[in-house]
Amino acid sequence: MIQVGDTLPATVLMEFSEVEGNGCSLGPNPVDVAKATAGKTIALFALPGAFTPTCSAKHVPGYVENAAAFNAAGVDEIWCLSVNDAFVMGAWARDQKTGGKVRMLADGSAAFALATGLTLDLTAKGMGLRSNRYSMLVKDGKVASLNIEGPGKFEVSDATTLLAQAKAA
């Protein structure tokens, strides 16, 4: 399992773009994790699934509401990762009004989740292999802090906890 001090796995996530520009075409676009984190501070949080109750009611809204505070604390970008496809993440981004605040990144095949060792098997609930719920502060591609939730919990991966860590870093 990934730990503080480790480099993020060299994987590619997908992001749905509503508008063409900055080298991105309309629709799903690849995001090379190593290139996208180089020289940046990223507040990254991951969750089991788009449109699920805790994720939609608490997890994403906390980061959207605190986007300016994260920026003031030196965070360049906020990333939300989920084992969903880019189209679902794009629809969820519109629903949660994350534009310009939180990048909604798809880990469609769970490659990132598997490479970090932060998976959650929800096969018994009909959801298959998903990402565990966690947050991490990433500096120049390396994990600076990591907050992993226990099963069914939402206590340490929230925006308030990660924001306090970003301010202290």
How does this model look, in words?
It is a single chain. The radius of gyration is 14 Å and the shape is globular. The strands form two sheets. Strands 2-1-5-4-3-8-9 form a seven-stranded mixed β-sheet. The chain has a two-stranded antiparallel sheet with strand order 6-7. It starts with 11 loop residues before the first strand and ends with a helix. The model has no long low-confidence stretch (mean pLDDT 93). With 169 residues, it is α+β, with helices and mostly antiparallel strands. The chain has one domain: Glutaredoxin (3-Layer(aba) Sandwich). It has six helices and nine strands.
Q: What's the rounded overall pLDDT mean? A: 93
Strand content: 25-35%
**CATH overall fold name:** Glutaredoxin
Percent of residues in helices: 25-40%
Question: Which strand order spans the largest sheet, edge to edge or round the barrel?
Answer: 2-1-5-4-3-8-9
Overall outline: globular
The CATH class: Alpha Beta
Return the domain count: 1
Q: Give the topology string: H per helix, E per strand.
A: EEHEHHEHEHEEEEH
Question: Count the helices. How many?
Answer: 6
